[in-house]
Amino acid sequence: MSEVVKPQGKLMAMLSPVSNFHLESSETCLSILAAVLRRKGEKDVVILSKGHSAPAFYVMLHEMGLLSDEELYSFADIDGLPSHVMRGLPFIEVSSGSLGQGLSVANGIALAKRIDGEEGRIYVILGDGELDEGQVWEAAMTAAHHRLENVIAIVDRNYFQLTGKTEEILNKEPIAEKWRAFGWEVIEVPNREEEIEKALERAEEIKGRPKVVIVRWEG
Amino acid sequence: MIESFREAFGRALVELGKENEKIVVVDADVKSSTKTVYFERAFPERFVQVGISEQDMVSTAAGLAIAGKIPVVSAFAAFLMRAWEQIRNTVARDNLNVKLIPTHSGFSDHMDGSSHQCLEDIALMRVLPNMTVVVPADAPSVPVLLKEVVEHEGPVYMRLGRDHAPRVYERPELELGRASVLREGSDVLLVANGVMVSVALEVAKALEERNVEAGVIDMHTVKPLDEKTLVRMARKVNTVITMEEHSVYGGLGGAVAEVLSERLPRRVIRIGTTDFGRSSRDYFALLKRYGLTADAVVRRIEGVI
């Protein structure tokens, strides 16, 4: 089936038996993951801080031939794929599922690389709802203070969080200004794979500070 | 001789830093209190400052561990607990090689009062899968156990007090997970850790004068608990007394009671706290108030045996 069904179709097929578990959050994350995984080099690290977008990640692995149909459709089954990403899966360095920790972990990896004189970017995919977590801003300060230019955060700005629209739950805007005020370089793009990839490319040219790509959903 | 836990820790960390280049220290703006400032001076390139943010500190340490470092995280025990969920969901769940070494545990931060005193941490850490929990008895124990902690692969919580560390050992030979038997005794068994080991030795002496022979164990590793030694020593007695500068709920007393109730039923009297602390200019006044001095423990034991 992998030859004919598009990623969105796979997502829906894998999530229909589990009450559409985080379907929207996974849909908006597909293009981000596709761009990041295509861009990712051997020394780069990807952290899916919004771990509930695991279904999108599994669809990407399936697209890459790293998961079989059977594995994909074992999502959230007792011995199947975990509902939130876990360390040990391809590309997954750290388990998530608890929001707000991924950026701090990315900083730690970046600091270790600096100590060792190693290269490599650390991509951290955050949800816009996740920005409610105070730890994100603690980590944003740490990354800026230490000038962690290898850290590239990507915010999936899809305007939805668990119980409703982001602006109704807790106002997020102005997101770009917030990151800028914390010492980050900000790039804003619509949620299209090629645009996201270009933004990641642009981000690499900016040195001396961490970068965030805010990916706005226009669906 | 009274020494300081945090001084012993700060100095031992520098010595280990010389031997092991993988050690990286992460601080949340308490380096002069925890004495990791010595490590910063010796190895500034392996010292990471994250500001007053314990949650960020723990998750940053997780990243360092993922990248192959041996991160040492130090803070006041009470405030490290605000990162419990980070410790649970990232450090323990992924079995990451992060060393959590808080100071100022128990009542040792006497002046600062109940917000700063930490009487719940052992329970909180003991419940986590993969986590090793260690409570050194005195200053000479600190470098010995710290070396073991750093060499152990996996997350460890090593709980330290602040400055009051009465000498128990001259040349401690300690091993993670192996209880240290300080005294044999067939009437009653005292199982203690941290500062309470020195108190247990005083209690044993006082009991000897009353013709009661007390065995004393330094149970410096609370998890994994040395069940073999505990059961062997408990077999000789009817009553086991646990002594800790921590809540009786879920700490050393809880651990000992759990094991004995399954393997060798004995009466277990847990000596520790059941309440929050309070401010005090004097550390000993607090120990006295909460029944953790030798006199108070002896009276308690006389009441039950």
Q: In words, what does this structure look like?
A:
The complex is a heterodimer of chains A (about 220) and B (about 300). Chain A is α/β, with parallel strands linked by helices. Helices cover about 40% and strands about 15% of the residues of chain A. Chain A has a five-stranded parallel β-sheet, sandwiched between helices. A two-stranded antiparallel sheet of chain A has the order 4-5. Chain A is globular. Chain B folds into two domains: about 1-165, Thiamin diphosphate (ThDP)-binding fold, Pyr/PP domains (Rossmann fold), CATH 3.40.50.970; about 180-300, Rossmann fold. Helices cover about 40% and strands about 20% of the residues of chain B. Chain B contains 13 helices and 14 strands. In chain B, helix 1 (about 5-20) crosses helix 8, helix 9 (about 195-210) crosses helix 13 and helix 10 (about 225-235) crosses helix 11 (about 250-265). The interface of A and B includes residues 94, 98, 108 and 109 of A. Chain A: Keywords: Thiamine pyrophosphate, Transferase. Chain A: Belongs to the transketolase family. Chain A: It is an enzyme of class 2 (transferase). Chain A: It holds the Pfam family Transketolase_N.
